[in-house]
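Crash report, auto-generated. Payload:
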Amino acid sequence: MSELHLKSIAELSAGLAAGEYSSEELTRHFLARIQELDEGLNSVVTLAEEASLAAAAAADARIAKGEAGPLTGIPILHKDIFCTQGVRTACGSRMLDNFISPYDATVVSRLKDAGVVMLGKTNMDEFAMGSSNETSYYGPVRNPWDRDRVPGGSSGGSAAAVAARLAVAATGTDTGGSIRQPAALCGITGLKPTYGRVSRYGMIAFASSLDQAGPMTRSAEDAAWLLAAMAGFDERDSTSVDRPVDDYLGQLDQDIKGLRVGVVKEFFEDGLNPGMRESMETAMEQLKALGAELVDVSLPNSHHSVAAYYVVAPAECSSNLSRFDGVRFGHRCENPVDLEDLYKRSRAEGFGPEVKRRIMIGAYALSAGYYDAYYLKAQQVRQVIADDFRKAFENVDVLLGPASPETAFRLGEKSDDPVSMYLSDIYTIAVNLAGLPALSMPAPLVDGLPAGLQLIGNYFDEGRILNLAHQLQQATDWHLQMPEGY
Amino acid sequence: MQWETVIGLEIHTQLTTNSKIFSGASIAFGAEPNTQACLVDLGFPGVLPVLNEAVVKKAILFGTAVDAKIARRSVFARKNYFYPDLPKGYQISQFELPIVGPGHVDILLADGQSKRVGVTRAHLEEDAGKSLHEDFQGMTGIDLNRAGTPLLEIVSEPDMRSAKEAVAYAKKIHQIVTYLGICDGNMQEGSFRMDANVSVRPRGEEKLGTRTELKNLNSFRFLEKAINFEVDRQIDVIESGGQVTQETRLYDPQKDETRSMRSKEEANDYRYFPDPDLLPLLIDEDFIAETVREMPELPEARRQRFETQYGLSAYDADVLTATRAQADFYEVVVAQAGDAKLCANWVMVELFGALNKAGLDLGGSPVSAERFGGLVKRIADNTISGKIAKTVFEAMWDSEDSADAIIESKGLKQITDSGAIEAIVDEVLAENTQQVENYRKAPEDKQPKMLGFFVGQVMKKSQGKANPKQVNQLLQDKLKN
Amino acid sequence: MSLDAEEVEKIAHLARIAVTSDEVEALKGELSGILDLVARMSELDTSEIVPMAHPLDMPQRLRPDVVTEENHREAYQAVAPAVDNGLYLVPRVIE
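Recovered output after restart:
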């Protein structure tokens, strides 16, 4: 029993089916781990103890009746950006500290239907704005590999929890790297799907044209299991794509011999930490050994992606977050004297500094006289960046690079300097601008800390990058490395 | 100085759909506050809009009716501003690329001339909720039932030169949208709302003067009065050496004046940008063709058809097709009663007269088209006379009964049995031998007048039910001998 | 790019966020720094480039005109800060 948290989804699914343990036992096991181990991490903000046990009991009944699916009874955590009916959905913000969602996000209801047990909600950067999980109203999350370091963000709670084996898996969202960068910093596998592959309904919007939900797991195989349940068309989301979901699990075991993997030149330039480079090179050697063909590829305009992103994302967020006005839900200031006071104080009190900065940058970029120079220009740069990817994929099947320029940095190290914080997403942002799928998976540790290898696929080619990652994970044990004490 | 008035109108028409433009909530009017506001309408965290197909079709119908170009690609944009009746803090509208491009309508001026007015564009957008200013603990109450109701905003060129022209244009648009069935045109409920942009300039000057935007014009009468007031005001301002301020002004029907709206709205900066939750709306030829196939007959075509098909005069056809409701009503009546001219007379004289007297419009008529048709049918087939029909109509007005039921229960059926009529005629002649003698002695040209006496007697005896034509004929025949 | 206090206050008003004078001071530098980062994209010549509003090259899907939502006012207003008789309350709005 004590080793349950080390098992894969497939192993647990088989164990549940065989009656070796019940979902209730599994759920209690993880609840106990969270209660015991999370105090030092702060990765879980809401524990749904009663609801998870009820869901586990229902899962056990399903299993007993032989009506179970592969995920029935598997306990996971949801990032607190997904609306969960009857359970607080705070999105890392004081603004929503009192918000009990009256409905479930599509991702949540799909997983619920599959029989997944929700243990609780994970901490995150406020409204998913941040790369270190230090902007959360609920305090920073700590990295289980070194509790003085950040887990990355914005899905830092999900990454830390999975790394510490506090849940089988977790959900995350990625607007500019928010799944991949924390996955890299915590040593887990995290996948951002193609824009439109997973429904955004019920996922509190940060930047609507960039946001995408995905799985955060211990292996590519687990990610394939989870993605298969999360992905698919949703009529409530106009940007959800109506096309069949590929057989991700079936693709995992395909041979990668002859697969053309493009090594992105610009991701290995000066900004990359030398230890990180070495780790990436080890992973690349391994890929070659498995028969993949490595080719140099250039994304010549990728260095403009951070700039374009910090116009597009704030512009969309400034509008998306206007609904938080203290009228229908969320924080409302005491005794507003008039309408303007209600808006201004509720929002000033409800939002933290990083969210305010981004709202203000976005309002500025869209305002009269600046729209062309900022917003329109950024959309043009976005097109150039997407074109770079289109050209690259004419010659290769998958692109490769680091997910982050360095390993986990220390708490507080960048929190006073927004710009240096923004640059920690330098390798992940371009992918969101283009809308492509990409994952980060553990590469060899650098000075005892995790490093993330990023694999970028062509549109809707999630199956291929999961296949490549799985093959690497079959041949190595980097993804099995665990932080001490968990 | 001679002044010229320049007017452009922006008309917001609520589209008659079942559900809202971006959500599956009902748009029915008058529900309990916030019971028709779903998560999407309330702008809850995480929700997303999905466009209603019917609004696209209705916009295409309108565009086609005003001879406009339908954009093959149009884009929804967010108009950002904070207001409590706007739940998301932005309104989803169309900005740079509207669905309906330039078109035009022709209006009839007082001198009988026709004038073409340009329609600049028409775009789809969502309506806002309502602020209720009655006292709620000293606060304002917000009802978001209306939020998300589909609107087609129709923007004209500044082509109108008088309040009368503006009214003619507004009525024309009203007629078109109600004929198309895309808007119920109900101004009291706010289904058809007009804003007027008004400016003045010295006659002959090409440059437009500074305009003001007039709001709260919820009837054609107010539209006319507000423009006239505003034109006089602007001329006064300029002639007394001042300058017109570009601003929004509210019309106050009680005082019949316009007044500046709290110019709190410091130069609005709406920060329009394409809504990333909605992809570009692409419309292909097939979709347009399929939509236009369902296009109802437009007023002008219907008017012409009424003249040819029913043999109506131009005047009658014009009156009966003034609104779709009237034309529909008339055609139901004709379908039942046959005689098209008789139907036109009865609808226009008796029905409209009665409605007018009661201060009702056609929608509020206590007699439905079907019931009214049933009445006219009985005049046409000689079951009752026109005179009796008026009595029947009065009874129908106050009850739910059909004309036939009333005729039956009150025994008002016309006597057409010639034997029965002959019996009464014989009785009358027998009772009035002196008059019969006088009649026969009288010169021929005096006789018709004298016949009236006998007709009157017969009708009296038959309680008005004898068929007057038959009575006449019989009397003439019998008095000859 | 450097913003002055007046510009910061204007943006804060546009965004309806109350700011203290200390915050304005800090924001001047922070926002200007971000704008400097953003300004780097001006190096790229994009004069011939069609702006990309969205990663999906796909038309808007249309929904059938059917009422699918029921009244859940009570549940939705359970999270509202101030309601009375089914109405959301805000400070007096003067037209």
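Post-recovery validation: The first helix of chain C runs from residue 5 to 14.
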